[in-house]
Design goal:
Low-confidence stretches: none
Number of strands: 14
CATH architecture of the largest domain: 3-Layer(aba) Sandwich
Mean pLDDT: 94
Strand content: 25-35%
Oligomer: single chain
Length: 231
């Protein structure tokens, strides 16, 4: 088994090379205080005045200038081209929860690949910070302090079913599937509880819930977390 690159008892902020502001970095670090960069995310860290504990990737998106500012011992090169830098980084981080900044916006193919990674590594809770939303893979169960009228969007990456309390349109009894039924633009009626029967449902909430979602994912007991996929 390959050694883990980052092992933390605190939440970790993971920076990517997508669309993000330096204020996004500092907001994430106020919640997840340890910082790791995925390849070009080191450029975002430099702009934000942050030195990441590690830079992970194939280093095709980070400048020599930025690498020169990063201690060699913190440069973790993974040369294979079969995975994205987000994939390379997330699978080498073990933490209660990861907050991803710079993995939305910009190129659509990169965004879609990031969503794939959330589902592929369901055992590693991660919330992505976007311009107006936060996005995460729903665990087996979660309670969120949403407010009445908050937009709650559910998007299945595979066939999945679940239950809800606190949605205008409850989801119990529905068979979600990306080819036949999705759940975008639902609305919270107050605090929200979701359960899912498999690691395949993405949840999108207003950005204001970043801190509460991060706490909920990071403090979940073991029976409210997914296990690693076989193989």
């Amino acid at each position: 088994m390959k050694p883990l690159i980052v092992h933390s008892s605190d939440p970790v902020t993971l920076l990517g090379g997508g669309a993000a502001l330096t204020t996004d970095v500092h907001e994430a670090l106020s919640i997840a205080p340890r910082c790791v960069a995925a390849d070009g995310g080191a450029e975002l860290a430099r702009r934000a005045g942050v030195t990441p504990e590690a830079v992970i990737g194939d280093f095709d998106s980070v400048s020599p200038r930025t690498l020169d500012l990063t201690p060699v011992a913190r440069q973790i090169r993974i040369a294979e081209q079969d995975s994205t830098d987000f994939d390379k980084a997330l699978r080498h981080i073990v933490a209660p929860v990861v907050v991803g900044v710079g993995f939305t916006g910009a190129r659509m193919d990169h965004q879609l690949a990031a969503l794939h990674v959330l589902a592929a590594y369901a055992e590693r809770p991660c919330v992505l910070l976007g311009a107006i939303e936060v996005l995460f893979l729903c665990p087996p169960r979660i309670r969120l302090d949403t407010r009445a009228s908050d937009v709650v969007s559910l998007f299945p990456m595979a066939a999945v079913a679940g239950t809800s309390e606190g949605l205008r349109w409850p989801i119990a009894g529905l068979a979600f599937d990306p080819m036949s039924r999705v759940g975008t633009s639902n609305v919270a009626t107050g605090p929200l509880t979701l359960t899912m029967d498999g690691p395949a449902m993405l949840v999108m909430l207003p950005r204001v819930h970043l801190a509460s979602v991060t706490r909920a994912l990071g403090s979940a007991p073991q029976d409210a977390r997914w296990t690693a996929r076989a193989g």
